[in-house]
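Q: Joint fold for the lines below.
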Amino acid sequence: MAMTVAFQKNARNVFFHILTRCNLRCRHCYVNPEQHGRETLPAETAKRWLEELIHEEKETNLIFIGGEPTLHPGLPSLIKAARKIGCASITVDTNGFFFNRILDKVAPEEVDYFSVGLDGSCPEINDFIRGKGSYHKCVAGIQKALAGGFNVSLIYTVSQWNIRDLKKMPALLTTLGINRFFIQVIGIRGRSAQDKEDGLQLTRKEWAAVVPRVADRAARLGIHVTYPKVFLDTQDRFECAGLVADNYFVFPNGRVYQCPLCEDFPLHSYVFKKNKLLPNLPINEKNLFELSISEGCVMNKLIQPGNLIYDKHGKPKYKIACCLLKEEINGVNSNRR
Ligand code: SF4
Ligand code: SF4
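A: Joint structure:
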């Protein structure tokens, strides 16, 4: 049975984009170099920012992300530094190419998870979205990481391109030996927004008909599954993570956001200046978090209103949940640590 994962005030999640460069050009990539910068953050600067971001009283969960973070030659030293300063967990979000022999340069105990993106159960689906040859390269990378004793999870971003394929993923995860599965929903931002890709988002009916069932099937196979809540009934309580949680999305040009949906705009709450984390004044995303509208998330209404439906009186038929609100099912045979 899926449980909604309540926002946590006593933990801080830091999504650290240490570069925006990537070897792939996925159709749905949300990275926006115009807004996020093109530089590779020097490892020494990244370490100083990490010291600013760690919270003394809260557990800090750190996610290294990009671009492709394994393209950063300093990633192994950053992982070790993050361990040393006391991060509670360290995840590396990767496309599975595992550059710079990263698997030889860190130990399995130093990384909680390599979280690998794969958007199809076969090359035909995945490579249409992520590029020719990426399926086989990614699967080979996963197998190498597992053989090396690393924990591997898999992220699948669902859109109209691959929703019909999602049902095949639990069997693939079982075959590969992966016991943690994140189902993500496509966001109309970054490349999806720039290319004006139409009709990629899922309707509530499509989401409800497919995602919870696939998640349930995966959980029955012993896989731990997490997926976004996305839709709320009108009587459900709405909460904005910008107000009730502690998330930081850090980019190499110094911008620090609290909401992923704000990332295409200069609305970041904070900014690194001279390696100090400072508030970004005067108007930023925090001013939007406090607006209360009957559609739920304000940013969703501004940038991807295609997922809303109204009745004949102009009232929304449901709310859109905060994009950071997740459902979670514990697999019955889960053996993750
Ligand atoms: S692997 Fe990630 S960063 Fe690279 S193009 Fe794909 S979505 Fe973007
Ligand atoms: S997605 Fe919406 S609800 Fe969530 S933090 Fe952003 S503005 Fe707030």
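Q: Anything notable?
A: The pocket of iron/sulfur cluster (ligand 1) is lined by residues 22, 24-26, 29, 31, 66-68, 95, 117, 130 (CB under 6 Å). Residues 204-220 form the longest helix (17 residues).
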